[in-house]
Amino acid sequence: xxxxxxxxxxxxxxxxxxxxxxxxxxxxxxxxxxxxxxxxxxxxxxxxxxxxxxxxxxxxxxxxxxxxxxxxxxxxxxxxxxxxxxxxxxxxxxxxxxxxxxxxxxxxxxxxxx
Length: 114
Hints:
The protein is mainly β. Helices cover about 0% and strands about 55% of the residues.
């Protein structure tokens, strides 16, 4: 079993920054993929950024150049640095770990508003 705990969400003004963290605990293998997804009210959950065990990353077009995903393998933790935030980034952000199956965190709210 794997448990994911997210932190770092909150309220920020447009143009501001936030850093999300997701720590994984439990039976963690050496090779796994972690990512961030988000779901806005009335919309489907969408991929924001993914980082593979070798460090390769993939981003949604809407966040390229503004968001950066990184990981600390020693801590089994993934981060999402979000800069130049826009109101349309408002959503619940979920962390996902994939090793044989998907594990999801509980979600953290990010609100971008003046």
